[in-house]
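Field notebook, page 353. I keep forgetting to write these up properly, so this time I am using the form the group agreed on. The chain and the ligand, zinc ion, are recorded exactly as supplied. Prediction of the bound pose follows.
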Amino acid sequence: MSIIMGDIALLKEDITLLHKQLNNAKKNEDNILSSLVNQIYLHDVITESKQIPIENKWLLRLRKVCKSKNKKQLKQFIKQAEVHNKFTKMMIDCYYHKIDQIIRGKLYTELPEEEEITIIKDFVSKELPEYYKLFIDALAKQRLFRTKSTKYQGLRATFLNSITNNHNILVNDNMSVLFMGNVVHEFGHVIEGVSLHNNIFDKNTCSEIISCKYERKFYSFLLENQLLTDEVYTVLAQYYDNNLDYLLTLKYLSNLSPKLLEQQIKDPRYCIDRTLPYAYGMTIANYLEALRNNDLDKYNYLFKRIDTNRLQSSRNNITDIMDVLDNDIPSMIDKDINHVIECSKKAAVLKKN
Ligand SMILES: [Zn+2]
């Protein structure tokens, strides 16, 4: 085990407490069960082992909960397939030929951890001052986990304990730009969890938009402060590339017949839970970031709408979001993508020489 950040004793305490609560629960069992399974998963990842068993009756129950959730999700996806199809077509036309021009640069900077944390603190205090105390508390609580594991390199996630309302965050990156960007992204989910007051939150589209937006804003912050500039452009180029992948998958899924769709989403590469929030999340985050530099009033209005939406039950309802967006998304993103490609090319050439 090689944990370089976070206190595993706290995670073990969480698991013991949740287990106890689950066995004595009279209500909210599904929330507690889901919290417990998440913390166990985190434990297994950071220790690279499987040590904590869970009774069969709870596993069966979990399977039932997931089945019913997936059924609901599938129904909603089919209902909105036309919207997904239209949206992905519009965006893929905008991205497709540009992404070909991306030259993949390399990341090379591993700053000392203290320095990374200082940069993130600086960002939060300037850009998200209302949440600065929350961030400092999260750090002080030793609930941000990072390991030396190569097996789970790049994995990031936030796990809420619905009993204590603590969040355990995992961000497994060696390279500083990615580590810091992902911490900021996951912190977005912590803000949401705290605002929802113990209600379990699942991956949803509005929450991904906001977290991706914080992440993109952080990259802009690094650029504005001339920190790791070349590497930031490399990450942004990669970001657009990943964004296109999610859009292509979403387009593919939205064109399948309901029967085929039901089969296909069993394949983890096509899981709706990931594809849907990221396809919209990354695209709209890119749009918002471009808008921030061009039309601040519109940016403020849209950001507020989506941020409010993510705390409501309709937060997975795409039509609700699409209604407030305009058709200027491709043109707005077009400028940003051209700039990113140009700068990432320069960065890659510079590194080569
Ligand atoms: Zn996220």
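OBSERVATIONS:
- Residues 80-140+175-352 form one domain.
- The pocket of zinc ion is lined by residues 185, 189, 208, 211 (CB under 6 Å).
FOLLOW-UP: compare against the apo run.
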